[in-house]
Amino acid sequence: MAVSKDFTIEQGRTFTQLIYWADEDKIVYKPITGATQTAPVRLTVTGHSLTNGWPVAVTNVKGMTELNAEANAVKDKDYTPTTIIDPDTIELNAINAAGFKAYTSGGYIQYFQPVDLTGYTARMTVKDKVGGTELLSLTSANSRVTIDATNKTITLTITAVDTAAITWSKGVYDLEMVSPSNVVTAILTGKVTVTKEVTT
């Protein structure tokens, strides 16, 4: 099922959006063996297998319990992007743990398993209304969608020249991923708003 997300494009400026596509039926759990009382917090998670930016939640930590989401009831707001320090260490830049209690033991990070993007293509169409006239097309073929299978990311890009040429102000879109066997999956849908550049 496609996730709802709205975008704003500013005319005359490059539009870039980084997207992570996860299999929300498969949760990966990795044990935590250390956490620092620093800003931002660093976690020791041996063999975490994450890539930069992938969102994780923390549960069941002892001592530094401020890190924990409610165990077995993790919500979207409990997930935070990661910064990869090395194969066994991650940093959660959004969390300042300098004033937290000291870590004593245990805990897990959990995250939704990334979809293997190998061989996928993508297409995003913006229309004036559902079923209406096409206003803008972003695809793998026109280089406005970049798929990075190694880092498990999808990047939407519209150049500053192209955003400056937009003459419409509102639209709706969906982003579809096409597998090597031609299975089409809609992963995002929502509204697109175009605003004028402030400096011109």
Brief description of this entry?
The protein has 200 residues and is an all-beta fold.
Kindly describe this structure.
With 200 residues, the protein is an all-beta fold. It folds into two domains: 3-21 and 116-195, Immunoglobulin-like (Sandwich), CATH 2.60.40; 24-114, Elongation Factor Tu (Ef-tu), domain 3 (Beta Barrel), CATH 2.40.30.180. 2% of the residues lie in helices and 46% in strands. It has one helix and 17 strands. It has one helix at 160-164; strands spanning 3-4, 7-10, 15-19, 22-31, 34-35, 41-44, 55-59, 80-81, 83-86, 89-92, 108-114, 121-127, 134-139, 145-148, 153-158, 170-178, 184-195. The strands form four sheets. Strands 1, 2, 12, 13, 16 and 17 form a six-stranded mixed beta sheet that branches. The chain has a four-stranded antiparallel beta sheet with strand order 4-11-7-8, with no helix packed on it. It has a four-stranded antiparallel beta sheet with strand order 5-6-10-9, with no helix packed on it. Strand 5 (34-35) and strand 6 form a beta hairpin. The chain is elongated and about 60 Å long.
